[in-house]
């Protein structure tokens, strides 16, 4: 990637994981929501993804986008996800196609498909001997308004890809925690994404050649109900971490 990569939501958890792993590999342009405590080492601007002027300025001169900005709370109320997640993402796509950006990587979520976790399937599906898998070809099935906003973000990508040809990779991110998987939380362990694997899958999404993809962003956990096959095949993602390596240890979640 010769041109800069725009990273929205750069000050958040996923943004920090991406920068931590890929800081030196790309020229970054960061979009922050509020002024940072410390001066970033990269070009940055401050603003809101629902503001067209900010988004146009952010998009100026970039070759690819990793769009993370949004309300990440599974309990987020409709007005917030409608504005921050849906409207903000639409404005980002519109500006990206105006600018002729090649690739758009969208932070989708496990919550876009949360309602597949039915009473009949759980908790068995969170366990290593269960072979239930979602692979990204299934219909979205959100269990909350936040999940609806993420599914909508994926559909926006489908539209902008089909209509304008922009390459789109939706990463249904699992549960990102730093250092170790969540403790006493089988579901979280089954969809754990380590910080290094988070950087890896975003590198793959920036480098691979694809049209439109929906992949699961988790580490190679023994427990899993998301298939990694598409991420491996379409992106060349090769996760190195596994929540099972922490079984039996006591750690405090961050
Ligand atoms: N952390 C996780 O495990 C997962 C995260 N995701 C998605 O990844 C993305 C990043 O999540 P996190 O880093 O965990 O959240 P975070 O809250 O740590 O970071 C999100 C960042 O986006 C910024 N932001 C929010 N609304 C904005 C707006 N309207 N304009 C500009 N900036 C705005 C916030 O200020 C914050 O810095 C979100 O879209 C979230 O839905 C998806 C699945 C799992
Ligand atoms: O999409 C997201 O998912 C993760 C994991 O979901 P949870 O229901 O296990 O908490 C969540 O932590 C994150 O905030 C959210 O953006």
UniProtKB/TrEMBL annotation:
Belongs to the NAD(P)-dependent epimerase/dehydratase family. Coiled coil: none annotated. Keywords: Carbohydrate metabolism, Glucose metabolism, NAD, Oxidoreductase. It is an enzyme of class 1 (oxidoreductase). SUPFAM superfamilies: NAD(P)-binding Rossmann-fold domains. It holds the Pfam family Epimerase. Homodimer. Catalyzes the NAD-dependent oxidation of glucose 6-phosphate to 6-phosphogluconolactone. It comes from Halosimplex aquaticum. GO terms for molecular function: NAD binding; oxidoreductase activity, acting on the CH-OH group of donors, NAD or NADP as acceptor. The keyword Nucleotide-binding does not apply. Residues 5-176 form the NAD-dependent epimerase/dehydratase domain. This is NAD-dependent glucose-6-phosphate dehydrogenase. The active site is at residue 146. Its EC number is 1.1.1.388. The gene is azf. NAD(+) binds at residues 84, 109, 146, 150. GO terms for biological process: glucose metabolic process; pentose-phosphate shunt, oxidative branch. Pathway: Carbohydrate degradation; pentose phosphate pathway. It catalyses: D-glucose 6-phosphate + NAD(+) = 6-phospho-D-glucono-1,5-lactone + NADH + H(+).
């Amino acid at each position: 990637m010769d041109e800069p990569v725009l990273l929205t939501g750069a000050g958040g958890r996923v943004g920090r994981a991406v920068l931590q792993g890929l800081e030196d590999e790309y020229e970054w342009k960061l979009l922050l929501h509020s002024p940072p405590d410390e001066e970033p080492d990269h070009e940055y601007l401050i603003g809101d993804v629902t503001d067209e002027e900010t988004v146009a300025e952010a998009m100026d001169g970039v070759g690819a986008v990793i769009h993370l900005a949004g309300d990440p709370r599974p309990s987020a109320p409709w007005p917030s996800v409608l504005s921050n997640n849906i409207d903000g993402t639409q404005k980002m796509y519109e500006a990206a196609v105006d600018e002729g950006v090649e690739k758009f990587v969208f932070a989708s979520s496990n919550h876009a498909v949360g309602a597949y976790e039915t009473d009949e399937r759980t908790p068995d599906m969170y366990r290593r001997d269960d072979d239930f898998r979602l692979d990204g070809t299934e219909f979205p099935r959100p269990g909350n308004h936040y999940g609806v906003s993420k599914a909508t973000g994926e559909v926006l990508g489908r539209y902008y890809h089909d209509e304008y040809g922009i390459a789109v990779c939706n990463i249904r991110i699992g549960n990102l925690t730093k250092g170790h998987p969540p403790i006493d939380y089988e579901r979280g362990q089954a969809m754990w994404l380590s910080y290094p694997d988070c950087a890896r899958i975003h590198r793959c999404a920036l480098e691979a050649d694809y049209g439109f993809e929906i992949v699961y962003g988790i580490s190679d956990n023994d427990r899993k109900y998301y298939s990694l096959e598409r991420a491996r095949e379409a992106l060349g993602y090769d996760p190195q971490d596994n929540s099972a390596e922490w079984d039996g240890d006591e750690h405090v979640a961050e």
